[in-house]
From TrEMBL:
Keywords: Cell membrane, Glycosyltransferase, Lipopolysaccharide biosynthesis, Membrane, Transferase, Transmembrane, Transmembrane helix. It comes from Paraburkholderia sabiae. Its EC number is 2.4.-.-. It comes from the Bacteria. CDD domains: DPM1_like_bac. One of its GO terms (molecular function) is glycosyltransferase activity. This is Glycosyltransferase family 2 protein.
Length: 316
């Protein structure tokens, strides 16, 4: 769909992992949609191979030779979706940048609408899925992530942090200034701007294979969000510690009073053990949370890389 007669350039960044079979269809579909939008010669498709164990890099190299608009980047090891996306953003040259997944669940036909939204003056355009093609546990996880993001990142209510989004290059330039090893893209975007609009799209079924996000990866992403962009978990730990200390003082006073009133009362072994385990568990949780922050700070100070590029298709 032709969105505007104004001349502009567009970059489409796609992190790639275990998608060798889907990539040819993805490239052809994107090429056809961009041709329909009148963007021939004014767009690039940046495919970032996140050290995929299949032959995705060989496929990307072949597609780059066949389609001039394809730019391929291969990372030396698996850095994760958000870090791979950051690698793509650092190589994007368009005035507008679209980020999408590699499985064609994000319809390329929606790109025109997203760019039109940016042309209205918005900095960022997120997509909202009308019919999510995900497992039940993943839908629940997304709702939980949305609830946490609203409180930790001060995310506007109703904004779904979809991985299918479009950004102005000015926003991208600010986002890529972050060079830490634990990139959480949506947190970086919300730190830069609140000029955001959402458009509805139809979520498509995955064209091939299974999704790469399992429960452990989802938990890792949530922890990255929680500890990289907010001190709220530390504040909660402090409040919990203060509350438990206050509660313990109350219980100590009650025990002393009861002992004075009834000297025959025997100390309760079960209640004592339960109390110790409960307080010990809270203390361990709080110490672990502090350790998570310290560990990330340590790795940042030691310049743990966000990503490392091994090959680029335009370099041979």
């Amino acid at each position: 769909m032709r969105v505007d007669q104004k001349t502009y350039s567009l970059s489409i960044v796609v992190p790639v992992y275990r998608s060798a079979e889907i990539l040819p269809l993805l490239v052809r579909t994107v090429g056809e949609e961009m041709h329909s939008a009148g963007l021939d010669g004014r767009f690039e498709l940046v495919l970032v191979n996140d050290s995929s164990p299949d032959n995705s890099w060989e496929v990307i190299r072949t597609l780059a030779r066949e389609f001039p608009f394809v730019k391929g980047i291969s990372l030396r090891r698996n850095f994760g979706q958000h870090n791979a996306t950051m690698a793509g953003l650092n190589h994007a040259t368009g005035e507008f940048v679209v980020i999408m997944d590699d499985d064609l669940q994000h319809p390329p036909s929606a790109i025109g609408t997203m760019v039109a939204t940016l042309l209205e003056g918005y900095d960022v355009c997120y997509t909202n899925y009308l019919n999510r093609q995900h497992a039940a546990w993943k839908k629940f996880g997304s709702k939980f992530n949305d609830w946490v993001a609203t409180r930790l990142l001060d995310k506007p209510k109703g904004l779904y942090l979809s991985s299918f989004k479009a950004l102005r290059k000015e926003v991208v330039d600010e986002v890529i200034k972050y060079d830490g090893p634990y990139a959480y893209l949506d947190g970086l975007i919300l730190d830069v701007t609140r000029s955001i609009k959402t458009v509805d799209i139809h979520h498509q079924a995955r064209q091939d294979g299974k999704g790469n996000y399992n429960l452990s990866r989802s938990l890792s992403l949530w922890l990255k969000m929680a500890t990289s962009f907010s001190v709220l978990p530390l504040r909660i730990a402090s409040i919990a510690g203060f509350s438990l200390a206050s509660l313990s003082m109350v219980f100590i006073a009650i025990v002393i009073i009861e002992k004075l009133r009834h000297p025959e009362i025997q100390a309760g072994w079960s209640s004592l053990i339960a109390t110790i385990l409960f307080i010990g568990g809270i203390q361990t949780l709080c110490i672990g949370m502090v350790g998570e922050y310290l560990g990330r700070t340590y790795l940042k100070l030691n310049r743990k890389p966000q990503y490392v590029v091994a090959h680029r298709t335009w370099e041979g």
